[in-house]
Amino acid sequence: MTLIDWLWAIPVFGLMIFMHELGHFAVAKFFDIRVHEFALGFGPPILGFDRGETRYNLRAVPLGGFVRMAGMDPTEPEDPRGFNSKPIYARALTIFAGPFMNFLLASLLLSAFVYAQGVPVTEPIFGQVLADCAGQPCPAAVSGLQPGDRVLTIAGNPVEGWSDILAHVGKSEGAPLEIRFERGGQVMSTVVTPVWMDDRWMIGVQQATRPGSLWKALAQGPSITYDYSRTWVKSLLEAVSGRTEVQLSGPVGITREIATQASAGLTNLLWLTAFLSINLGLFNLLPIPALDGSHLLFMAVEAVRGRKLDPERVNMVHFFGFLLLMGLILVVTYGDLRAVILGQ
After folding, report:
1. Which domains, and CATH codes, for the chain?
2. What residue ranges in 116-192 does DSSP mark as E strands?
3. Do 154 and 177 contact (CB within 8 A), yes or no?
4. Known active-site residue 21
5. Mapping DSSP to helix (H, G, I), strand (E, B) and coil, where does residue 122 land?
6. Residue-wise pLDDT tens digits, 75-106
7. What is the pTM of this model?
8. Catalytic choice (21, 53, 173, 312)
């Protein structure tokens, strides 16, 4: 992995956080809630500007963001445009809009991924030629095969479709194979020795694709988002019940995974960003103090009681929840750093 691969974490984190806070901000403006500040990051501001009644800031620590609305701080004077002055449905929608935007972002990215991947073609044409196969150069790349090459024969056997390529490579038992192929109207040949990877013999090529239906891709993005979200919730319930172990990654671990996928190609990074966005949305909906889910939980209690909760007590709960979250992040980050140092 190169430094550029590691730096991809900045736009990935930035996009997810921006979309989340944009959701809060846009719905707050829709319900005419006064917004004092729209910020990306925490800590001291390093760049910012004023527009209307709102200050837009980029802060020093790029591990989150916030939309500071009037009326959320009980020490502020009463404001008819303050958050707590609005009906409960307006407040709930304003809070839910953040996670919703993460789900929307994931759906769009997954739709783009599905459309970019395209529909596999049945002809014996190579798509992407992989560079790395289980830590060693892939045989196809070593042998000079390229995307777009049309296979004619393998070990003297005629090849009519992609399934023939899979069959001949799969039964090779690792023996060298002569591949005759056509490239730019010329017939060429090379010898490829398959390697054992992922429980099968492979030479390191992917099936070629053609552009698929944009409308089908747009439908598949939300469908994949829903399926993954359901699996995430099921896994969480199993972890809470003690049937499985909880596996957490902090900023360092996630940055490392972003760099890994970036080194493998932008489509891999696109896929990972979508699933990170889903995780961010779902995590924020958990009823943990300081997260969006706890705000929604308090509003549900308020709706049942028929009167508002004490704002000072609610803010105190969120404050201690924030401290606990910061402590958890530090613990997980320590584990991630230890894994990186030890090369695990």
Report:
1. 3-117+217-314 (no CATH), 120-210 (2.30.42.10)
2. 119-120, 126-129, 132-133, 136-137, 150-154, 157-158, 177-183, 186-192
3. yes
4. yes
5. coil
6. 788 889 999 899 999 999 999 999 999 999 99
7. 0.76
8. 21
